[in-house]
């Protein structure tokens, strides 16, 4: 199945929030207010991966062509930050996450970012494996980073 990347539109918000709720446990998933803040931050952008046919039901909504999304931001310090990557369960292991991450890294490079950082929960083994496959390295641990008390690993990659 092929996926296309497009820019976030305000009408996408509820679908993205529901997807985030299904991708992450309480204490790691974002509230509606948090997600809105991240999407609207200065230097932030949100990219959406869509399939030509619905990728599966998200929460209680009808089937949606949205297969996943990424929120990232470029800072004036020439460092990018991946805020979140969320992929519909039915579209995982199909290249959606890699497509989103590559598109975000390309956009950060074009914004003159020299590196990119991100955080992931220490117990999110699949995310850690994914990021390592894409050239990210663990540089430190943030104790009790998430509101549920879970530590975060900080990873970085030179662009």
What share of residues is helical? 25-40%
Shape: globular
Q: Quote the distance from N terminus to C terminus.
A: 28 Å
Strand order of the largest sheet: 1-2-5-6-7-9-8
CATH topology of the domain at 4-113: Aminopeptidase
Class based on secondary structure composition and strand pairing: alpha+beta
SS element count, helices: 4
CATH class category of the domain at 4-113: Alpha Beta
Query: Measured on Cα atoms, how large is the radius of gyration?
Result: 15 Å
CATH superfamily (homologous) name of the domain at 4-113: Gcn5-related N-acetyltransferase (GNAT)
Supply the CATH architecture of the domain at 4-113: 3-Layer(aba) Sandwich
Largest sheet: 7 strands, mixed
* Average of per-residue pLDDT values: 92
The residue ranges in which pLDDT falls below 50 over 5 or more consecutive positions are 57-61
The succession of helices and strands, N to C, reads EHHEEEEEHEHEE
- DSSP strand (E) fraction? 25-35%
How many strand units? 9
What can you see in these coordinates?
The protein is α+β, with helices and mostly antiparallel strands and 159 residues long. It has a domain at 4-113: Aminopeptidase. Helices cover 28% and strands 33% of the residues. The chain has four helices and nine strands. It has helices spanning 13-23, 32-40, 96-110, 125-133, and strands spanning 4-7, 44-50, 56-57, 63-64, 66-74, 79-87, 115-121, 137-142, 152-158. It has a seven-stranded mixed β-sheet, sandwiched between helices. Strand 6 (79-87), helix 3 and strand 7 (115-121) form a beta-alpha-beta unit. The relative contact order is 0.16.
